[in-house]
Amino acid sequence: MKPDVLTLLKALQLSLENGKSLTNALNLLQNTAKDKDERAIYINITRSIQEGASFSNAIEKYISPSPDIIQFVAMAEKGGGFVKTLKSVVNYLEIKNRFHQESNDKIALPVIYFTLTAIIIIFIRFFAVPFHISEAKSYDPRIYAIIAEHLDMALILSNLLLGGLLFFSAYFLIVMIALFNYSGAIQGVAKRIASHLPISSLVIGYFEKFILLSLLSEMLKNGVSLKMTFKTAANSTIIPRISKQFEGILAQVSRGEKNFWSIPFFEEIEQHLLAGAGTVAQLGNMFGEFADRARFNALTMASKFFRSMTIVAILLLSFAVFVEFFTIVLTQVLIQQGIIDQVGHA
Q1: Smallest Cα–Cα separation from 202: which of 193, 210, 194, 192?
Q2: Which spans are transmembrane here (predicted)?
Q3: Per-residue CA distances from 268 to 25, 261, 265, 273, 274 (Å)
Q4: Residue of 345, 200, 238, 219 lying closest to 291 (CA atoms)
Q5: If DSSP codes are grouped into helix, strand and coil, which group holds residue 278?
């Protein structure tokens, strides 16, 4: 079991603030770890650092956190005071975790409804329809023909239901991976797909903006140059269009141009405010305020997304219940009606 990155960094921050060295702090974590796999990871990180590797490279190798965390920790190593910057990283992670927690609370209902719909589809296709077909074979051929035609329609309806379930559940899963999966490659693919889909593109855009602006704000506050800050932003994001925008800003800064804030990443009012900033410290504070606003917008859009997916999941479940009624109840009605008609004609 891998250690939680927030727990690790917070423990290191507190240990370093109390005067311990980085290796001593890691040794303390080794001694207090209850899980042997977690203890082994701390041992490997300590050994890597003693062999000359940076702390950011060591945790990237043995813990594999998201790319923004690696950039943040690397910034802590290169920027001002390591302990001070590490504290900023911990604060950033706590905000990010709160965002995830607030979003996670809204995931349960769509998952439950999608699961119930899938169970009904499986029941209809693999149990109800075969059972009624088998039962109908024992009746008069005319009754069998009516039942077979009815069950063919039930299968068509269940196919439509299955298609809708696969489409919306795949959409939902892609957004979940884009928001909450920490594997760089998988999350990168999911973010690229989700950034082109309706509603989810806004959720991903605001969330990515919150991450980047939080990172840039702390970098500027800790004395990192503007050029290095933009380079980090271009390398940190997984979304190509945002990366290209910051590469454009970096090129303009390298050429000595000043009006480089006019990119889609920043809203129009943000562009005007940034253009009026007089110092790097002011830019850092502005980025922090913009990050808070982006987090609020991300949560708002995430709530709309989860609400929409819940409504869709309820509609799919309702349709599934109708198909189940159509398959089971109406089939029995047709059988009884066929038997009555057959007796009447006799």
Answers
A1: 194
A2: 107-133, 153-182, 311-335
A3: 46, 9, 10, 9, 10
A4: 219
A5: coil
Cα 206 to Cα 202: distance, rounded to the nearest angstrom: 6
27-59 pLDDT tens trace: 888 888 777 888 888 888 888 888 888 888 888
Q: Please, are residues 18 and 83 in contact by the beta-carbon 8 Å criterion?
A: no
Output the DSSP codes for 216-268: HHHHHHTT--HHHHHHHHHHH-S-HHHHHHHHHHHHHHHTT-S----STTS-H
Helix (H, G, I), strand (E, B) or coil at 21: coil
For residue range 127-144, what is the model confidence (pLDDT) as tens digits?
Answer: 888 888 888 787 778 778
Mean pLDDT taken over the chain: 82
> Could you tell me how many residues make up the chain?
346
Cα–Cα distance measured from residue 124 to residue 147, given in angstroms and rounded to the nearest whole number: 15
Residues 317-343 pLDDT 10s: 999 999 999 888 887 877 777 665 654
Place of tokens 């760089």: 184
For helices 280-345 and 141-180, angle between their N-to-C axes, nearest 10 degrees: 170
Is 121 within 8 Å of 151 (Cβ atoms)? no
d(CA 208, CA 179): 9
pTM for the model stands at: 0.76
2 within 8 A of 183, measured Cβ to Cβ: no
CA distance 245 to 247: 5
**Amino acid letter, residue 319:** F
